[in-house]
TrEMBL record:
GO terms for cellular component: fungal-type vacuole membrane. Keywords: Membrane, Transmembrane, Transmembrane helix. Its main location: membrane. It comes from Gymnopus androsaceus JB14. It is a multi-pass membrane protein. It holds the Pfam family MFS_1. The chain crosses the membrane at residues 50-70, 82-100, 120-146, 158-180, 186-206, 259-277, 339-359, 371-393, 400-418, 456-475. InterPro entries: MFS, MFS_dom, MFS_trans_sf. SUPFAM superfamilies: MFS general substrate transporter. Residues 1-210 form the Major facilitator superfamily (MFS) profile domain. This is MFS general substrate transporter. PANTHER family: NODULIN-LIKE DOMAIN-CONTAINING PROTEIN, UNCHARACTERIZED NODULIN-LIKE PROTEIN.
Length: 501
């Protein structure tokens, strides 16, 4: 390949990475839900449990659509995903905005009246659309970057794209807090336009760039010196280039124990993250009310809620970049499989829930938010790299899609448990999540972390189990690598005798 062509491909890769990051920044806005969820609940008189259903609907859209988006982008490229993402994001957020602006109907003037079932179902549908649309663009950008960069850079470049997915919550939360504080309608309009337009840019510029063929490490025709020269090179290739598992995909994944271990770890940790992200706004509000009752400052509460969203997003961004670089470095320099780092990821998630269960004041809530964001960010970046390492790139997006169905299990269990736990501590449920008048605050749980801590005990158990599973995954990977090395050495021992013959 000529040097001029190489430079051209490098420039195209950089452009692809940049635009893919832009698309990713527009794709993760489901994490902004907690920034406007309390206001949505207050205006429409929605209970904690119903609010969790709306938040989960967006996540259902993300994760349930993943296998289908993966199959589409693997077969047809990124353009269908980008166009569909544009349409779904625009309609989804504008739909939520219209319902929010309309509020309750004129005849719904009773304090106990809630939004109608039909309107509630529309909110669920629009939330699903935002999840499906964002995930369409994200799947396309992730697929293109994974296939456009060599394995030596794949962890870092994939980490950059994945980090954008988490950073989007900070960007839109920052805009909401500084550009129009308390103006939820403008935030929803910004979400509609700010997520849809990058999908059009991705439609024009995101496309896979072909990789160069790697040079042979040693000659294909062996001679008497080949074993001596090739042994160290063979080990490096086995550790860095050789797939550790067969290229399983589709239904064949169901026969792989390694896939189920990965699936379980992802479900437990991401489910914990979804529960926390969707409800940290309520946690901040409850802790604030516990400290300041009967005083209640809407602007102050909004500030603490935005702080949690920004902390999770920013630290998650750092975590996604950090684990990508660390996984590439540890594999290239120490021949360590990326799966070992799952122990770090799951231990961080466990620590976040332990800290959250002990926080009594809203000013300390950022500590658990930071730990949760770091672990959650590392999880997504590391998991995508491990999928390419274990199962190959031929069906990369499809496999990632099946993996990301798993948060539906953990996320639903943990989030609904949180909502039920909080409702059980609140005397009246329909209109108490976001309270402006002092007399309404009497209906909100004022016991601080006691209002929700039982749900955190459940996630602590889940994260502890994920730590054990990650240790098992690392042990299995270690054994698999040792077997591969042993087989390679046996072949090298047999090769001289064949050459002599």
């Amino acid at each position: 390949m000529s040097q001029r062509l190489q430079h051209s491909l490098q420039r195209r890769r950089v452009l692809t990475l940049f635009v893919s990051l832009l698309v990713s920044l527009a794709s993760g806005t489901n994490y902004v839900f907690s920034a406007y969820a309390p206001q949505l609940a207050a205006r429409l008189h929605i209970s904690h449990t119903r609010l969790n259903v709306i938040g989960l609907a967006g996540n259902v859209g993300v994760y349930l659509s993943s296998p289908f988006w993966g199959m589409i982008v693997d077969k047809t490229g990124p353009k269908p995903n980008m166009f569909a993402g544009f349409c779904l994001l625009l309609m989804g957020y504008l739909g939520i905005r219209v319902i929010y602006d309309t509020g309750l109907t004129q005849d719904s003037n009773k304090e106990s009246e809630s939004v109608s079932t039909a309107t509630f179902l529309l909110l669920v549908l629009f939330s699903i659309m935002t999840g499906v649309g964002g995930n369409g663009g994200y799947s396309a950008s992730l697929n293109v970057v994974a296939k456009s960069f060599p394995d030596s850079l794949r962890g870092s470049t994939v980490g950059i794209v994945v980090s954008g997915f988490g950073l989007s919550a900070f960007i839109f939360s920052f805009i909401a807090h500084h550009a129009f504080p308390g103006e939820t309608s403008f935030l929803l309009l910004t979400l509609a336009l700010g997520t849809a337009l990058p999908m059009l840019i991705g439609f024009l510029f995101v496309r896979p760039i072909p990789l160069e063929e790697p040079p042979e490490v040693f000659p294909s025709e062996p001679d008497s010196q080949t074993p001596l020269l090739a042994e160290s090179g063979l080990r490096r290739v086995s550790a860095f280039h050789r797939p550790l598992l067969k290229h399983l995909h589709g239904r064949k994944l169901l026969t792989s124990l390694d896939f189920w271990i990965l699936f379980s770890v992802f479900s437990l940790v991401s489910g914990t993250g979804l529960m926390y992200i969707n409800n940290v706004g309520s946690m901040a509000q409850i802790l604030y009310l516990h400290e300041n009752y009967p005083e209640y400052n809407e602007i102050e509460v909004s500030r603490w809620q935005a702080t949690q969203v920004s902390t999770i997003s920013l630290v998650g961004f750092v975590g996604r970049i950090f684990i990508g670089i660390l996984s590439d470095f540890s594999k290239a320099h120490f021949a360590l499989p990326r799966s070992y780092l799952f122990i770090l990821v799951t231990a961080t998630a466990l620590a976040s829930q332990i800290v959250a269960s002990q926080v009594d004041v809203v000013s300390h809530l950022w500590r658990s938010s930071g730990l949760l964001g770091f672990g959650y960010g590392m999880l997504f970046s590391l998991s995508t790299s491990i999928v390419s390492e274990w199962f190959g790139l031929a069906h990369f997006s499809e496999t990632v899609g099946f993996l990301t169905i798993s948060p539906l299990i953990g996320g639903n269990i943990f989030s609904l448990a949180f909502g039920k736990n909080l409702d059980a501590h609140s005397p009246v449920t329909p209109q108490m999540l976001f309270l402006v008048e002092k007399e309404k605050s009497r209906r909100q749980c004022r016991e601080g972390r006691v209002c929700y801590v039982d749900a955190l005990y459940l996630t602590i158990v889940g994260c502890a189990l994920s730590v054990l599973l990650s240790i098992w995954a690392g042990w299995r990977d270690h054994k698999r690598i040792e077997r591969a090395f042993a087989e390679d050495e046996e072949r090298e021992v047999e090769r001289p005798s064949r050459v002599d013959c």
